[in-house]
Amino acid sequence: MMLEMDQWRSGMRLPGRAGLPGMMAVATLSLAASTLAIAVLRAGAQGLHASYPAPVYLLAVLVVGMRYGTIPAVLTSIAAFLLYDFLFVEPLYTFTINSPDEWLNLVLLLVVAVVIGRLVALLADRATEAADRAREAEALYSITGILASTRTVDVAAPTIASRLEELTGMERVWVGLGATPAEEGFISDTASGQPLPIPGWHVVLQRAPGGRPHWVRSHVLSPGPRRAPRAALYRVRVEVAGGTLGSLWGLRSPGRGEPDSAETRILSAAADQLGQAVVRDRLTAEATVAEIARQSEAVKTALLDSVSHDLRTPLATIRATAGSMLDPAVSWSEEDRQEAFESIDSEAERMGRLVRNLLDLSRIEGGALRPELEVRDLGDLVEDVVSRYLHTGKAIVSAIEDGMPHVLVDEVFLGQVLANLLENAIRYGGPRIEVRTRAIPETAVVELRVEDDGEGVPEAALDRLFEKFYQVPRSTGGRRGMGIGLTVVAGMVSAMGGSVRAERSDLGGLAVVVTLPASGTPEEEVAGGTGVARGRGRGR
User: If we measure between CA atoms, which residue out of 450, 453, 392, 438 comes closest to residue 537?
Assistant: First the structure.
């Protein structure tokens, strides 16, 4: 019903001031052409003759009605009635009609012309309305696609503003977010860099539920000098049920008049879409903050639990052993005493590693990790670290490739990296651990590979091994670590300009591959200049 009323109002309106000369020109030319055709038919030139050619004027009514609507068509019908009476009805060149038949013919001509004009105007209005609806649907689909394909409103707003400028005939479009125009912060502007107009009034779109949107002129109280814009300023509120979120603004040339019904619906729907997107972004941000808070709390709890467990265990061992040694009632053999000292030393070293990893992790996250890079012999560094873990009961094999180039590393960092990898393999791997190196000349890097023959990790977990506090789900029980050892490895390797990855080991377990930059100097050139490579590849 609302659509029919809109079509009725649209068809009953005269063209605007800008379109009036065009309408008059079309009506005049159509009536003149019809009059000339009737004159030819009445004269019977070239064998053409019609006793009553007045219906030819219906062509002029059709042309005007299709182009300009009902009222211009009715006015053209009246003009056609008067022209035929004046030019072709006896007595000629007067508006007097002596014959009742002529009266009947002219009245019928007028009625038929008015009816046909109205029907043609309705058909033209329906065609225009269908085209407007198609344009509106296309515009809404485009805006919805832009909002769906972008992460936030801030990213989507510039594209939407440009699209609205093109679709609605605006000279400039911008979007502001805020409860009032004075509080709005602009997130997009199709003419960014140019000053915004400060008019004394603007036109606001009033939208009521179930009602037809309409434009209302509104005065604005704004601070500072007012600059009268050369175009009319239009505002569409970006609203949701909770209130106003911002505005969709547009500048329009006064000669274009107010936005038509299709342009108004596009602007209104775009404002609604922006409002829903703003609410979506706010809900997403709130959910993200809540999730971060939840995860932070979970991480803190897990960290405290893990640290307290990892610290309590060695402390309890140290205290129990030291207390037994201090008890005069307990007699200790030299062998037992040595074993007790080794136990205390081992547990103290374990506590030291835990504290060191925590400190290293904080330095990595704080960006305070600054390596002192030097050209070092990778084989010597590997053997020095491996030698400290030979007493663990694991079969640790180091295989250093002959003719290895030196590496550009921080000796302390690399020692810590290898120590963490060996401790991880000792804790979770099988009885055999291999440490291998190889040069990759075409890329000027050296690979350090630590692998074991243990249970390994699932394929899905390989890419997450270096995440902070990540712990691999395992089928076997036993004490689990804090999940920061490999995170420290990744941070230190990255600080030295290298990379690290995890993959399935050829032994059946896990392999961690560290890639380090080569210095370009082979080992045999540094070993006293003898040209003889120091052999490595012996098992330990």
Answer: 438
**HSE, side-chain direction, 13 A CA sphere, residue 446:** 30
Q: Decide the pairing of beta strands 432-440 and 395-399.
A: parallel
Cα–Cα dist 347/357, whole Å: 15
CA diameter of the chain:
151
The correct answer on CATH 2.40.128.630 for the domain covering 155-220+229-276 is no
To which CATH superfamily is domain 374-526 assigned? Answer: Histidine kinase-like ATPase, C-terminal domain (3.30.565.10)
Domain chopping of the chain, boundaries? 2-134, 155-220+229-276, 374-526
Instruction: Count CB neighbours of 540 within 10 A.
Output: 14
Question: 119: part of which helix (H) or strand (E)?
Answer: helix 100-149
Take residue 201 and report the two structure tokens written for it: 């009034």
Cβ-proximal residues to 121 (8 Å cutoff; 6+ apart), any chain? 11, 65, 66, 68, 69, 70, 73
Helix (H) or strand (E) holding 420: helix 411-428
DSSP per position, 204-221: EEE--TTSPPEEEEEE--
Which residues, 6 or more positions from 203, have their beta carbon under 8 angstroms from its beta carbon?
Answer: 215, 216, 217, 218, 232, 233, 234, 235, 258
- Name the pTM for this structure: 0.47
pLDDT digits over 206-231, tens only?
887 666 788 888 776 554 444 545 67
At residue 513, the pLDDT reads: 92
Return the structure tokens found at 350. 């374990």
pLDDT digits (tens, 9 = 90+) for 253-304: 887 888 888 888 888 888 888 888 888 888 888 998 888 888 767 656 655 5
The residue count for the chain: 540
Residues β-bridged to residue 238: 246
Strand pairing category for 405-409 and 432-440: unpaired
pLDDT tens-digit profile of 439-485? Answer: 887 788 899 999 998 888 888 888 888 887 677 766 554 445 556 77
Q: How would you class 446 by CB atoms within 10 Å of its CB: exposed for 0-12, middle for 13-18, buried for 19 or more? A: buried
Sheet with 232-240, side-by-side order of all strands: 185-189, 172-177, 243-252, 232-240, 201-206, 214-219
Cis peptide before 209 (omega within 30 of 0): no
521: pLDDT strictly greater than 60: no
Q: Provide the mean pLDDT of the chain.
A: 76
